[in-house]
């Protein structure tokens, strides 16, 4: 299993980014969470097979229609064995 922490910056709030990501994540079969941050970015942790995680990270770098992703920073995280994919409250 692979788990990554991702912070996406740009025009990523107010465009349905988190809720679209939840659908993308569930379709890809990954677990984890996504949330808005007070600085205007979106933060997420994604866990699954390397292929599943890479698929979701690639989507995050593009985002949903109406968004404009300027930067997506990805770092490794320790697998947590989480279940499901959640939209969390703003940090």
UniProtKB/TrEMBL annotation:
Under Pfam families, the record lists: Acylphosphatase
Listed EC numbers = 3.6.1.7
Catalytic activity line of the entry = an acyl phosphate + H2O = a carboxylate + phosphate + H(+)
Where along the chain is the active site annotated?
Answer: 18, 36
Domain Acylphosphatase-like residue range list: 3-89
User: GO molecular-function annotation terms?
Assistant: acylphosphatase activity
Annotated stretches, region: Disordered: 67-91
Query: What PROSITE patterns does the record tag this protein with?
Result: ACYLPHOSPHATASE_2 (PS00151), ACYLPHOSPHATASE_3 (PS51160)
Q: Which UniProt keywords apply?
A: Hydrolase
EC class, as a word, reads hydrolase
- Output the InterPro entries linked to this UniProt entry: Acylphosphatase (IPR020456), Acylphosphatase-like_dom (IPR001792), Acylphosphatase-like_dom_sf (IPR036046), Acylphosphatase_CS (IPR017968)
Keyword Hydrolase among record annotations: yes
Q: Which family does it belong to?
A: Belongs to the acylphosphatase family.
**Protein name per its UniProtKB record:** acylphosphatase
What is the protein's species of origin? Microbacterium immunditiarum
Organism lineage reads as:
Bacteria, Bacillati, Actinomycetota, Actinomycetes, Micrococcales
């Amino acid at each position: 299993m692979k788990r990554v922490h991702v912070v996406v910056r740009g025009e990523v709030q107010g465009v349905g980014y988190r809720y679209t990501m939840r659908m993308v994540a569930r379709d890809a079969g990954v677990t984890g969470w996504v949330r808005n941050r007070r600085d205007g970015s979106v933060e997420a942790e994604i866990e699954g097979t390397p292929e599943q995680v890479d698929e979701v990270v690639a989507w995050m770098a593009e985002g949903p229609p109406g968004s404009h992703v300027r930067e997506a920073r990805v770092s490794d995280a320790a697998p947590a064995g989480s279940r499901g994919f959640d939209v969390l409250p703003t940090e």
